[in-house]
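This section describes the prediction task in plain terms. A model, or a person checking by hand, is given the sequence of a single protein chain and must write out its three-dimensional structure as a string of tokens. No templates, partner chains or ligands are provided. The sample shown here is typical of the held-out split.
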Amino acid sequence: MIIHTLAILILGIGFSLYGFYIKKKPYFLIQNSFNLSNKIISNEAIQLYANKMSKITRGFGVFFIAFSLIQYFVDNLEFSLVTIFVSLFLYLFCSFYCQKSLTGKIPTAFLVLFTILFVIIILLFGAAYIESDISIDNENIKISGIYSEKIPITELCDVFLANTLPSIGYKINGFSTGRIINKGYFYSKSLDKSVKLLLHSESKPFIYIIYANNKYVIINFWKQETTLQVYDKLKRLAQNKTHIIKTDCDINELIKGEGLVFENLGYEYTNNLIGRILWA
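The expected answer:
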């Protein structure tokens, strides 16, 4: 969205102007620093510190301005927020590192905080990128990983393969990198309901699992071969099944409305179903 681009652009311009201001008024940094204002520091050291911070600040300003152009074409809010957060954190790290020339050391509390937050970020985004796994026992279909799912076999309504995705309006609760990773609950305009997406790549086909009261799980994997292998497991389950409680699922819902287009996340596929298993 244009508002995201403008916000990042304004941030970049602000950093650039602040960088020039630091160079013009070097004592501003010392007077407004909680751990430097009460120290006796030579004018030469202050000037050197201000010049370093001015260059770093202007450098981050140029980066944010350039990144606003990338955001305009990519339009991925999660990616932008992560980039901005990491960039601001790196800016703080550079700021405290530059203070080493004045105090002789980097504050220990900052190093601890930096390490903790870095580990948290790695864990959160690492979990989102880990591929889900499907296992089947006598009672349930279990999908492991972030946004896991447990589907009782008796509640299954339909499983099929498709080269298409339903029209997605917005994210309700989930994680999205745009065209690649999309996990969580998203509102489908064509289905007029929330669906759970566990999409690990752009590679089609996609497995549709419909169960209970028209609940949808749509999943694929990094490799097309894995998607087809998982589908074969579900297909064999259907063939060996002797009794399934039929629920009120309407496959025609998939092709109603505005067509199967992943509007906000950049997907655009044709409506071409390539496989389907129906259970009566």
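For orientation: DSSP finds seven helices and ten strands in the chain.
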